[in-house]
């Protein structure tokens, strides 16, 4: 019996952490799918759209807080306490940056770019894989599936990074006024950052997998 398997014998029967992480991933997926819908056109970027995104972000904050509370209550955890903290924080970052992307798209009233919708789709694709990875992480019974999702998230981040470079080049070559360039650049940076945050979460999950599977 491996050391990791031995320690799993003493893990609590209450799977509260797995359940909370799954709830976070569910909330993130609902948020990303709603974001795809809202960022599909300039007309959809409204106060009502932003308010719904804000609600998802607040829900994520509450779930993250619950994870931290459980860390204080449970002496034995399904995997390393630091890893639980890091994963919870990284998932919260995803919600925060989605929220920021929509907030600035609304506040800046900048020219709308088709890439806003494309980035949103990349974000949603990443969150879909992240949800799969988190559900398959439970009890470390499906390491292959977890790893496949992490690899796909990394691939999507690379595609999003290429799009970011392309959009930046086109933006600075355009004849748009400087103030509008600054606005668009800021929005695109936040959108691309979300895919970075998804990759960060995937890297943490992959690290946990290596330690315990």
TrEMBL record:
What Gene3D superfamilies does the record point to?
Phosphate transport system protein phou homolog 2, domain 2
**By its UniProt entry, which Pfam families does this protein fall under?**
PhoU_div
Domain of life from the UniProt record = Bacteria
Coiled-coil positions are none
Family under the similarity heading? Belongs to the UPF0111 family.
Name assigned to this protein? DUF47 domain-containing protein
């Amino acid at each position: 019996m491996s050391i990791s398997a031995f320690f799993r014998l003493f893990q609590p029967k209450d799977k509260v952490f797995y359940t909370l992480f799954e709830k976070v991933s569910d909330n993130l997926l609902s948020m990303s799918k709603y974001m795809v819908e809202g960022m599909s056109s300039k007309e959809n970027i409204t106060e009502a759209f932003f308010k719904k995104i804000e609600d998802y972000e607040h829900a994520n904050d509450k779930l993250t807080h619950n994870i931290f509370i459980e860390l204080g209550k449970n002496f034995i955890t399904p995997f390393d306490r630091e890893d639980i903290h890091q994963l919870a924080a990284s998932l919260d970052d995803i919600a925060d940056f989605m929220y920021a992307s929509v907030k600035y798209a609304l506040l800046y009233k900048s020219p709308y770019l088709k890439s806003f919708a494309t980035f949103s789709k990349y974000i949603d694709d990443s969150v879909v894989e992240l949800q799969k990875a988190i559900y398959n992480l439970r009890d470390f019974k499906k390491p292959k599936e977890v790893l496949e999702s992490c690899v796909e998230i990394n691939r999507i981040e690379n595609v999003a990074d290429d799009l970011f470079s392309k959009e930046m080049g086109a933006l600075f070559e355009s004849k748009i006024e400087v103030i509008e360039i600054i606005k668009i650049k800021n929005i695109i940076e936040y959108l691309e950052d979300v895919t970075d945050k998804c990759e960060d979460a995937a890297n943490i999950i992959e690290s946990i997998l290596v330690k315990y599977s």
